[in-house]
Amino acid sequence: MHIATLPLLAATSDSLHSIRAFLEKGGWFMIPLGIASFVGLAAILYKFLSLSRSRVIPDKLAGQVASFHDLIVADRVEPVLKEFEKGDSSLARLASVVVRHRGKPQRDIILAVEAASREESARLHAGIGVLEVVITVAPLLGLLGTASGLVTIFEGLGDTADNPMIARGIARALNTTIFGLSIAVPCVVAHGYFIRRIEVYTARLETLLADLSHVCQRSNPRS
User: Fold this and answer.
1) Considering the domain boundaries, does residue 126 fall inside one?
2) Is the pLDDT at 197 greater than 70, yes or no?
3) Residue 142, Cβ neighbours under 10 Å: how many?
4) 23-46 burial: b if 16+ Cβ within 10 Å, else e
5) What's the first-to-final CA gap in the chain, in angstroms?
6) 123: in domain
7) Contact predicate 187/44, CB 8 Å
8) Which domain holds residue 131?
9) Considering the entire predicted model, what is its pTM?
10) Is residue 8 part of a domain?
11) Residue 70 lies in a domain
12) Which of 36, 28, 4, 66 has the alpha carbon at shortest distance from 183?
C-alpha cells in the first residue's frame, strides 16, 4: 500500500466512526429516520430517471411534431406515425391520441387530448407524493426523537444535577432533529426542482399538441 494513501484511509475511518457514533447517540429513532432517508433518496433517483427529456419530450420527436405539416406535404409522415404508436414518451402517447382523432373538429381533438393528458400528468407526478411525505415525516420524527430524549434526561434530574452531563445529553437528543432536517432539506430542494420541470414540460407539450391538433383537424396523415 502506498504511504500517501494512509492519511486518506485514516480520515475515512474517522469519518465512518463519527457517523456511526452520531447514529448510535440518536437511539432507535434513527431507524425510521434511516428508512425515510432511503425512501427519499429512492424517490429522487426515480424522478430524475422518469423526468429525463427522452422519456417526456425527445428533441427529435418534438422537431418532427413541430414540422408535422411539412412532413405530410413531403409524404414522409409514416415513420413519425410509427414513433407515435410505440408510445415511448409522453409526447408520443399524446400525439398518437391526436392522430387517432384526425379529421374531426379541433374541439373534439382537444377534448380527447385533455382526457389522455390527465393520465400523463399522473405519470409525471408519480413519486412526488412520496417526497412530500418524507418532507413532512422526517422533521417530525426528528423532533419526536429529541422530545423523547429530553424527557428521559429531565426525568433523571435531581437536586445535585451534573450540568455538563445534562448538556451532553441534550446535545445527543438533538441528533435526531439534525438528522430529520438533513433528510427533509434535500427532498424539499428536489421537490421544487421536479415540480418546476413538470411545469416546463407541460407547457411545451401543450404548445406542440395544439399545433399538431390544428394540422390534424384539416389533414389526414395517412391519406
Assistant:
1) yes
2) yes
3) 27
4) bebbbebbebbeebbebbeebbee
5) 72
6) yes
7) yes
8) 28-135+184-218
9) 0.79
10) no
11) yes
12) 36
